[in-house]
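Dear colleagues,

I hope this message finds you well. In preparation for our joint manuscript, I am sending the DUF6699 domain-containing protein (Lentinus brumalis) sequence together with its predicted structure, so that both groups work from identical material. I would be grateful if you could confirm receipt.
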Amino acid sequence: MGQQYVPGSYFIPPVALPGGATPMMQPNQGFSMDFTGFPNPGMTGGGSNAGGTPYVRAGAPQGTPYMGSQTGYSTFQQPLPPQGMPYGMGMPMGMPQYPTPFMMQGGLPGGMSGGMPGAMPGAMPGAMPGMPGGMGGGMAGMMGGMMGGMGGMMGGGMPGAMPAGYSFTPGGGTVPMGMGGGAPPLQQSHSGGGRMPHPKEKQPWDELDKFIEGEDYGPVLKTMLAHRMKAKVEINPLILPPNDALDRDYLKWNMLFPSGNCQRSSDRPGRSWHHGRNAPATWPRVTKIRLISRSFPWTIEVPASDEAMGVTCGDVIEAIHESMYARLSQPQYDHASRQQKRLLSESFYHNRSTAHGVPGGRLQQTLLRCDWLGQDTMFGGVVDDPHLVREMCRDVLPCTFELKCVRRYPMSEAEMREAEAREREAEERTRRRSRSRATSRAGSSRPPTRPPTRPPSRAPPDDSSSTTSD
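The corresponding structure tokens are as follows:
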């Protein structure tokens, strides 16, 4: 009993179909009039028309209930050319078997006897519903022939298979499914070291250090450009504070002394820092950075000595040294607290004394910025501290970092001997330079001691001849 339609319901009311025969099937059996068939997988090439033909092969059997015998191009019924085996098997359908190097006594390698072409008639009259007229049957015979040979081939283990990685065959031809011989053996590559490298393995040319020396690596950004681009500026680990494990290099330097006294932790004692002076101080490289500190109230501008390379680690150390040896201004002294003024007085006399670890009388007899530091005269590294920058500058300024000043501890006996030897060497160098200048001046005013090598151009007058004439 059919369901009654309820007025106002959301369901569609039932429709009574008229009685009689079903609608007549379209002339092309349900396909469009311009349908030319499915592409032939045996043909190479691409595109929408690859492998298809606009006509039915002559002599094809009559159509089945699933497929008509005619297409929209029925007026162009011409014989088809010999077609290749499906999927590039390399042998034509319906053609006699040719002797090839793959054919041996008793069949193909691995037990594929009889050859595949003989078991595959070209017409293949249909047992495959829904396939075009050009792909008729014969599939049963083809599958039978293939299964018979495939069993023996699989039992033989597919000898002579193409080695992995061999991407083509000589002459651009296709290789039959037997794959017995014919392709040259895979040659070992000399560039890969005998094996394929793992994708995660780091090759020597894959990645460069961010802080490599030289002007041909990486761009050099202006300070404001780096700020506008929101670049995350990283500091060279060489000028960072040393970590607890002390497993990387860092700089050791008493800022009371010139930058030539700066040492790298991995260098031998008594060797001045050289390796890494031209390394970029930041990544990405910038043309100028600014240093602030909790130990002093002024800022240190660090411009790049060479804008093509950006600010280097050597530029940072030199800028700090120049700032520490600058005179303390009168407004800075006036704004100092009473405790800070007492510390300035003590540091002034101590830094110019004969104590170990201080320059002594070589410093100027006036208040210098290095006197402001008191005992915190050791270079402690450069760090990125945005909170301190906001606190001291009232805003987060680009490329502005903190300079840490560490307390100077009493020197050991070895450090004392090393400092004394370095001071003696500097004094001896100065003495030799002054002695050489004095010698050169004295030599220029001394009369020549050797006789002239050239004879006089005019002979002296003869005194005897003049006396005789008188």
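For the figure legend, we might mention the following. The longest helix spans residues 413-445. Strands lie at 220-221, 234-235, 251-252, 263-264, 282-283, 285-286, 288-292, 300-303, 378-383, 400-406.

With kind regards,
E.M.
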